Amino acid sequence: MRTEFTGIPGSPAAPEVAVVVDVMRAFTVAAWAFRRGAERIVLAATQEEALELKARHPGWLAFQDGPPVPGFDLANSPARLRALDVRGRTVVQKTTAGTVGALAVADAGLLLCASFVVARATAQVLRRVRPETVTFVVTGDCGRAEEDLACARYIADRVRGDVVDPGPYLDRARHSEAAARLTDGVRRGWAGVHAEDVGMCLEADAFPFAMAAGRADGHLVLRPVDPTAPEPVNAPPARPPA
Predict the structure, then answer these.
(1) Which of 112, 122, 108, 93 minimizes the C-alpha distance to 26?
(2) DSSP E strands: which ranges in the chain?
(3) Is 22 exposed, middle or buried (0-12, 13-18, 19+ CB in 10 A)?
């Protein structure tokens, strides 16, 4: 399996398999939403689209990053998510990195969204599908975010060998600019940031599911998938063993 690491493409692209990584905090929040019982997550291109979808569908929730915005239910904090009842709900999510990255490769043959908490399950899907090439979309800092690169490389290394110590990868992420910025935000009392967010983003392999996105009803929809089940959403045919 060849691996490519790139930032968010400037024009639409359709790789065979794309893994879009956003550790702090979009796809950690998404994973926690599924862990707490959310049914699906609709990835929105703009805040206006997210609020319009929420208005058209009573009972849907809307998440965004940055400071709290009127009309949204959560400011992209995994720790603050614990105060919300998301069981059986549809969530609309709009962020400046993770959702943008996923929408940029929405037509990939298989599109997975990932963070450390679902890294092992994501690698399991990739081992089963056996693609020739996997494109890791590193969403933070124009493709240079240390926490996203560390997570992407951890997933890639877990595909090649299931027993991999997450410690060095987590340490790299712990010392990233994004982690420092969130920690500083807690000290400064920024709204929408919680003191436990960084720690929750740095829990490796916490959940047994991966997250796959596919087109549905004109939207890009993210769902949890069992890595041991039949082919996930939009999966390309598996390659025969060498």
Answers:
(1) 93
(2) 2-6, 17-21, 40-43, 61-64, 90-94, 110-114, 133-138, 210-216, 219-225
(3) buried
Euclidean distance between CA atoms 242 and 238, whole angstroms: 12
Q: pTM above the 0.90 mark? A: yes
Token pair 């920024």: residue: 190
Angle between helix 119-129 and helix 146-160 axes, rounded to 10 deg:
50
CATH topology of domain 2-225: putative 2-phosphosulfolactate phosphatase (3.90.1560)
Q: List, for residues 176-198, the tens digit of each pLDDT value.
A: 999 999 999 999 999 999 999 99
Helices and strands, number each (H, E), in the chain: 8, 9
CA 33 vs. chain centroid, Å, equals 11
Q: pLDDT for 97-138, tens place per residue?
A: 999 999 999 999 999 999 999 999 999 999 999 999 999 999
Task: Please check whether residue 62 is in contact with residue 92, taking contact to mean a CB–CB distance below 8 angstroms.
Answer: yes
CA distances (Å), 12 to each of 38, 46, 64, 107, 158, in order? 29, 17, 23, 8, 28
Cis peptide before 127 (omega within 30 of 0): no
With tokens 């939403």, the residue in question is 33
